[in-house]
From TrEMBL:
4Fe-4S ferredoxin-type domain location: 285-314, 323-352
Cross-referenced Gene3D superfamilies: 3.30.70.20
Lineage of the species this protein comes from: Bacteria, Pseudomonadati, Pseudomonadota, Gammaproteobacteria, Chromatiales
InterPro entries: 4Fe4S_Fe-S-bd (IPR017896), 4Fe4S_Fe_S_CS (IPR017900)
Classification via Pfam families: Fer4_7
GO molecular-function terms, A-Z: iron-sulfur cluster binding; metal ion binding
Keywords of this entry: Iron, Iron-sulfur, Metal-binding
PROSITE patterns from the UniProt entry: 4FE4S_FER_1, 4FE4S_FER_2
Protein name, per record: 4Fe-4S ferredoxin
SUPFAM superfamilies: 4Fe-4S ferredoxins
Keyword presence, NAD: no
UniProt key word Translocase: no
Length: 395
């Protein structure tokens, strides 16, 4: 069966299945090369038959037609690769096909892998994520009105008159999580296999965080290591010392990750830099420059992870000593990472005119993205059909 994934058509059912998720994978020759490296033929066939929500072993036996013992081996292999999540609930284990992004592409670089040609995979992923512009994967990921991720503000950089809610506070998100773990940074690890290092000196290890049930899965499968809340807060402080931007799920309840992102390696920030200015939901704040204090030294330009600070329009005709910087308000994430770079104290965070409010939880976010992309009805129909099937089995 090893020849099957060399045939382009063999991957079509898998791609079709992945593309029923809120964020799918745009088909291309590079995508098929990536999938052929990650999925063996049996895994691709099983993945294509997964329902849109979690399924029990018995349900997957019925869907795939495979003997239970054979299916168990395939599911175990897929879980070890991060292609499927196994979720123990009481005496039952549920299985969920992991999306491509955010999902198994990131998981493939959350540890050093001897079973994958990671250098080749890194090159293919970097090319794939940038090909075809808005018509390619970048458009699929960043193009919805409802971003999958959002930035968090450095709460110590906002004025005493301002306030943030618990879901806007990185420290509170960490403290509220019931389980914590740290993992390799997908973006910097991928870049390291391309022979590149972070220009901000951010490490690959001990910098990106996963939370809750997803973190438990990654720890079980050797893709993350558990940490205490106190240790996670220390990592957060280290990230801020490096001027990294905090990014999490665009939801209010139970975010599953907290990444600490740089301007040179992060694929999320690359989307903003490519022109998807609403691709990451913004904080309730906006960086603002005081022209009277700014000496246009360039420190904030180098510190801005969204690359949204430049020479002020009104200062272009002036001598260099009289120039000042300006923030592009349409692009600024409001993270506050730039403020600590300014020795003149010319940068402040001011409240936005309207305060962004993320969806309550992951289901609410996914429903909005699915509706936006015209994919909601198939998702609801699949859930209804499976609910009826489960009721009939209990009779």
């Amino acid at each position: 069966m090893g020849h099957l994934l060399n045939d382009k058509s063999a991957l079509v059912p898998l791609i079709d299945r992945i593309n029923r998720y809120p964020v799918g994978l745009v088909d291309s020759p590079r995508l098929r090369q990536i999938l052929a490296l990650l999925f063996d033929p049996r895994e691709a066939e099983v993945a294509a038959r997964f329902p849109l929500t979690e399924a029990t072993r018995a349900e997957l036996v019925e869907r795939t037609g495979l003997p239970a013992a054979e299916l168990d081996g395939i599911l175990e292999s897929m879980a070890n690769k991060g292609l499927v999540m196994d979720l123990p609930v009481g005496h039952e284990t549920y299985y969920l096909l992991v999306p491509g992004l955010i999902g198994f592409m990131e998981f493939s670089f959350m540890r050093d892998r001897g079973d994958l040609p990671q250098a080749e995979l890194a090159r293919l992923m970097s090319e794939y994520l940038r090909e075809q512009g808005k018509d390619g994967q970048a458009g699929e990921f960043f193009g919805s009105r409802w971003p999958l991720t959002r930035a968090l503000v450095y709460e110590d950089q906002i004025s005493v008159q301002s306030r943030i809610t618990p879901w806007e506070d990185a420290r509170q998100i960490i403290q509220n999580a019931e389980f914590h773990a740290v993992t390799l940074c997908f973006c910097r690890h991928k870049r390291s296999h391309e022979g590149k290092t972070c220009q901000q000196g951010a490490p690959v290890e001990e910098i990106c965080m996963v939370l809750g049930e997803g973190a438990r899965f990654l720890v079980r499968r050797g893709m993350a290591e558990p940490r205490s809340a106190e240790q996670m807060l220390a990592i957060l402080d280290r990230a801020r010392a490096l001027g990294l931007t905090h990014i999490t799920d665009n939801i209010r309840e139970q975010p599953s990750f907290l990444c600490n992102c740089c301007r040179c390696c992060c694929e999320l920030l690359a989307g903003v830099q490519m022109g998807f200015h609403e691709g990451i939901a913004k904080t309730p704040f906006l960086a603002e420059v005081d022209p009277a204090r700014c000496d246009y030294c360039g420190a904030c330009l180098r510190a801005c992870n969204a690359k949204c600070i430049g020479l002020a329009d009104d200062a272009r005709a002036l001598p260099k000593a009289q120039r000042w910087a300006q923030v592009d308000a349409e692009v600024c994430l409001g993270c506050g990472a730039c403020l600590q770079a300014c020795e003149q104290g010319a940068l402040t965070l001011v409240p936005r005119a309207t305060r962004p409010r993320p969806p309550r939880d992951r289901n609410a976010l996914f429903a909005r993205i699915l509706w936006d992309k015209g994919r909601l009805m198939p998702f609801l129909a699949d859930g209804l059909r499976r609910g009826v099937e489960r009721l009939l089995r209990r009779r």
